[in-house]
Structure formats: C-alpha cells, structure tokens
Design brief:
By secondary structure, the protein is an alpha/beta fold. The chain has helices spanning 12-24, 27-36, 55-66, 83-91, 107-119, 132-137, 156-168, 182-205, 221-232, 244-252, 260-266, 282-285, 306-312, 343-346, 353-373, 386-399, 409-416; strands at residues 5-6, 46-50, 70-74, 95-98, 124-128, 148-153, 175-176, 213-217, 236-240, 256-257, 269-272, 293-296, 313-320, 323-328, 333-337, 381-382. The chain binds nicotinamide-adenine-dinucleotide. The site of nicotinamide-adenine-dinucleotide has 30 residues, from helix 7, helix 8 and helix 9.
Length: 420
C-alpha cells in the first residue's frame, strides 16, 4: 500500500505548531471527539478525505485517526496545500498524498490514491470536497464501490452534483449533505467566507477596502457574508444576482442591485460567489476601470473566465504574490487575485478556526452517522438529523459561556396544536 507522499518531511515542525494552534481553538470538535468518537466505531474503518491541506482540515483527520480510523487525505488541487502541514500530518499517522508542487492536472491521481488506500481492502467512509472522491468512485474506481459505506460533502457545489446524481438514479451509496447542516452554511459560508475572502484580498493587495466600490456577484450565504464584511470595512457594496428574491434581499439589506455589465463599469473590487460558470467574462472585462481587482470566492474556478481575461490582455505579470496583472490593448490594468480559484484558500489561510471547528464537528458527526447507520440509509442525499445540528450549536454556545431556553410542555403543545 502506498505510504504518504509529501513535498518535504523536514517541514513538519512548522506544520505541528499550526495543527496544535487549531486544536487548541477547536472546543466543539474536541467535545464531540470525547463524547462520540471513542466508542470504537472507527476501529479499522477507512476514512478517505478530500479537503484543502491546512491546519484545521489536518486536525479533523488527526481526530479521526486517533478514533481508530485509517485516514488517507489529498487536496482537490496543489494550490490548496500547505506543505508543512502535509509533512506534519504524515508524522501523525495520517496517510497524505499532497504537495504544492504537484501538477494541477494530477489532482485526480491523488484522489484515486485516497480511494485505493481507504477502500482498497476495508470498508470506508468518505469526506468529500466538491464531489471529487465520489465522482471518481463512480467512474475510475467502481471496483471499490461495494466497500464504501457513504460520503459526506463539504460544499454547496458538491451537494448540487450529488443531487444531480440522485436525480439520474446513479448514486451507489448514501451521501450526507454536511454543507446543508445549519451549523455549517449559516456560519462557514456566511461568516467564514465573508471574513477570509476579505482577508485574502487585503493581504494579497495590501490595499484599503474602505471607500471602495465592491461588487459582490451572487447573494447566497457566501455573498451575504462577503457583502456584510466589505460593508463593515467601509466599502460601498453593489450586488449582482440572477434570483430576483435574493436581489430584493440585497436591496433590503442596504445594497445597490444591478446587472453585472453595469456593475462592471463602476466596481473597483469584484468578488464572485455563485458556484456557477462565466460570471465575469470578456463582456465585463472590456468595461472595467483601470486598476480593478478581481477575486473568486465560489467553489468552482470557472466563475471568472481566466482564459477570456488572458485573451483580452496584451500582457500579464505577477505584481505581488497571488496578484496577477493583465494589461488590455487600451492600457487598462486588471488585477486577478488567487488565480481565479477559491481566493480564501489560495491566497490566505481559509476560514477562521472557530468557524471550521463547527464545520468539522459536523463532518466528524456525519462520518460517524454514516459509519453506524449506512445499512439503513437509502442511496440518496440525506440531511443531517436536526438533533446533531442542535448538539453542535449547544456545544458551541456552552464553550462561549452562553445558552438558550427549552420550550415548556405547554409551549410545545401550543405550537403543535390548532385548537387554541
Ligand atoms: N470560499 C469558500 O470558502 C466557500 C465556502 C462555502 C461555499 N463556497 C462556495 O461558494 C459558492 C456559493 O455558495 P453559497 O452557499 O453562497 O450558495 P447559494 O446557492 O446560497 O448562493 C449562490 C447565489 O448565486 C446566485 N447566482 C447564480 N448564478 C449567478 C450569476 N451568474 N450571477 C449572479 N448571481 C448568480 C444564485 O442565485 C444564488 O443566490 C458555491 O460554489 C460554494 O461551494 C465557498
């Protein structure tokens, strides 16, 4: 069986420090670990993980490995790999196939290694990102299907793909939409993406956000968070949407709402967060002002048409780490941050630890749920049971010294009945 492949094992000490810091700030995952993950459920079970390799994801895999699982992890691509963390993980008993120097074209090969390692000779549960592992399990690794108990999915985009597979009747094992847990999308997509996207743009450019016209494309959970943080920093925020209700929501939240081609002319910073393709294209680039900054926070890397940007440009150069400047024929300079990929991961450390503490508590419980309940679950997309979501929220409130009330029996009866 293939052992870990990382860029440089000597980088491990820095990685250990990062993982320890994440562990110290993850009270929810630590409580869930102590309460639920020590009952032997994971003994001898393979857990295949596709997630960016950084300290918080690393800590999730460490927790699962300590619970007895044989954990193998790879990143959805080399731009999401911190080599020191990968090296440290390999020392902590997790099998890692990840190097920032890998060719992006080889990402599937690393994910296939994860599948081979985790489900090659034992039953396995998958923790997936944008459906990478599950897609391969249903195509190039169909021989492993019978040993996969199920998968949980981290992202909005991945869940959309699983729903498509369910509609076509091709899903061969149950999937839990971890993304759709309230303790995930209400915090991770909204506050996590909001804070870390702005952090990534500010760190990469070292420019001010306050006073600038920020255009947010997509007003879903991520877009709402981005607009809120940009506004909090003093930006003047405009929103572009295709859903009129979401557009109206943005208006009611105090933002201008306008078509993207019009926003192209006024924006100084553009941030896509739709999960869709071709959101900013040549039609927009040709109207943008000199100096415009472009970044993508959506889960797919086709929101900004980077090939189209390259085509309209007469030249391109890296002006700062993670910032590429494209010059147009009429002399305007457009600045792309983080290559048009998920900017808070390519150009920053990702979400704050406290946010991922909630998300990964959910992921650990999804994996636990699948490992225990898979036999009674249909091959479709499942929501996490409400009690699990409630428990994660209660644990977090407890960790910050807060709490909520419980309904009295009278109140429960009143709310459930219709006679009064
Ligand atoms: N950067 C991160 O760390 C991070 C975190 C969570 C989710 N995501 C990803 O961000 C994307 C959005 O996630 P979400 O939870 O906000 O999804 P969502 O479904 O709640 O919102 C997406 C919004 O985009 C709108 N939209 C679609 N096409 C559009 C277009 N062409 N122009 C303008 N608006 C358009 C939709 O109407 C919808 O309101 C997904 O790809 C998700 O996987 C990224």
């Amino acid at each position: 069986m293939q052992e870990s492949i990382v860029r440089d094992p000597a980088l491990a000490p820095d990685g250990h420090r990062k993982i320890d810091w994440a562990a110290e700030h993850s009270p929810v995952l630590n409580t869930i670990r102590d309460k639920y993950l020590k009952d032997g459920t994971f003994e001898g079970v393979g857990v295949g993980v596709a997630l960016p390799i950084e300290a918080k994801t690393a800590y999730l895999t460490v927790v699962l490995a300590e619970a007895g699982a044989d954990v193998a992890v790879a990143s959805p691509g080399p731009f999401f790999v911190q080599d020191d963390v990968a090296a440290a993980l390999a020392e902590r008993g997790v099998t890692v196939y990840a190097s920032s120097e890998n060719d992006p074209e080889d990402a599937d090969r690393e994910l296939e290694r994860v599948l081979d390692r985790s489900a090659g000779d034992r039953e396995a549960v998958l923790i997936d990102d944008r459906a990478g592992l599950v897609r391969l399990a249903h195509t190039t690794r169909r021989n492993l299907l019978e040993r996969i108990r199920g998968a949980s999915e981290e992202t909005t985009s991945g869940v959309a793909k699983f729903r498509a597979m369910e509609r076509e009747g091709v899903l061969e094992f149950p999937v839990v939409a971890a993304n759709d847990a309230r303790c995930k999308y209400l915090f991770d997509n909204r506050y996590g993406t909001g804070q870390s996207t702005l952090t990534a743009i500010m760190q990469s450019t070292n420019l001010m956000v306050g006073g600038k016209r920020v255009v947010v494309l997509g007003y879903g959970w991520c877009g709402k968070g981005i607009a809120r943080y940009a506004s909090g920093l003093g930006a003047r925020v405009s929103v572009c949407e295709v859903d009129p209700v979401r557009g109206l929501e943005a208006y009611a939240d105090g933002f201008d709402v306008l078509p993207a081609v019009d926003a192209a002319e006024i924006g100084e910073i553009f941030i896509t967060a739709t999960g869709s393709t071709g959101v900013l294209t040549a039609a927009h680039f040709e109207r943008m002002r000199d100096g415009a900054i472009l970044a993508n926070a959506g889960g797919v890397d086709v929101e900004i048409d980077v090939d189209g940007l390259t085509d309209v440009a007469t030249g391109a150069r890296e002006v700062r780490r993670n910032v590429e400047e494209f010059t147009t024929a009429d002399g305007r300079r457009l600045h792309l941050v983080g290559r048009g990929m998920v900017v808070n991961l390519t150009a920053s450390d990702g979400h704050p630890i406290e946010i991922m503490d909630l998300t990964f508590a959910i992921q650990a419980l999804c994996a636990n749920h699948l490992a225990n309940e898979h036999a009674s679950m249909e091959n479709r997309v499942h929501l996490l049971p409400k009690e699990i979501d409630d428990e994660v929220a209660t644990t977090k409130l407890d960790a910050v010294g807060m709490g909520v009330d419980a309904l009295t029996p009278e109140q429960e009866g009143f709310l459930a009945g219709w006679r009064e």
